[in-house]
């Protein structure tokens, strides 16, 4: 195996978890593979090689300056509060040196830096949910998907907020060294191997707005607490004491989604938790989550997560 160089860019105001999360994953690869020479040569660099202070006040000392850093296999750009623009020295360095890396990776708002450097034009990407609209508005040549926790488009990989950088790093280790290596690292870090990239950044309750009217809030609570119940529009409208048509219109206006989509997302999330946390069979879970049949649950999982329930359980349930 060939050792791959990973270079993590540091700057004033960088988000510390955006740096340390992927670093822990890549550093763990040598142990997981069982051959130090086959892991990753992980280095950090700032523009002048000097220490930087993170957004939380933590002081990080880089290994070198960017001018002296080797051309990496994987270039990781974390997010943070630094004020960068197209003429910023860091942006210019990324524009000049980013294309030389075999793999470009951003964590959280690091995607903003890559976009300003012109490295995301024509790509499908994601970033922290709070910055998706801004990224799309400022860089119309970039296709921004606000939902997934990470997105792969060719040699460019972008992740959402903070901890999703760990998910993306585990995915890259799995790509480079196989599933067992990534699983070993995930066990050591006590995280799942691994949340699928198209898993949503939010739960259904967070993704949808909370309704302002009490009857609709009660319906949202009822759906979350009774995923296996009758959650048809007619049944939910009766609970809200509204006509089905009025209920559907009001629910969408106040939550930003339709009742059906909200129910679908709640049921998938509940089924995911049962697959991850219990030994219950898929048929039992499908009934308890309101699907009725395993096939109906399978279709919902493939549509939402891109993987059937059985594969999800094998890949994402922690192994004792």
UniProtKB/TrEMBL annotation:
Keyword annotations for this protein? Transcription, Transcription regulation
Q: Which residues form the HTH araC/xylS-type domain?
A: 217-315
List, alphabetically, the InterPro entries matched: Class_I_gatase-like (IPR029062), DJ-1/PfpI (IPR002818), Homeodomain-like_sf (IPR009057), HTH_AraC (IPR018060), INH-QAR (IPR052158)
Report the domain of life of the source organism. Answer: Bacteria
Q: Does the keyword Transport apply?
A: no
GO terms for MF: DNA-binding transcription factor activity; sequence-specific DNA binding
Write down the SUPFAM superfamilies for this protein, in alphabetical order.
Class I glutamine amidotransferase-like, Homeodomain-like
Which Gene3D superfamilies does the entry mention? 3.40.50.880, Homeodomain-like
Q: Which Pfam families match?
A: DJ-1_PfpI (PF01965), HTH_18 (PF12833)
PANTHER family linked: ARAC-FAMILY TRANSCRIPTIONAL REGULATOR (PTHR43130), HTH-TYPE TRANSCRIPTIONAL REGULATOR RV1931C (PTHR43130:SF3)
Q: What name is this protein filed under? A: AraC family transcriptional regulator
Source organism per entry reads: Streptomyces uncialis
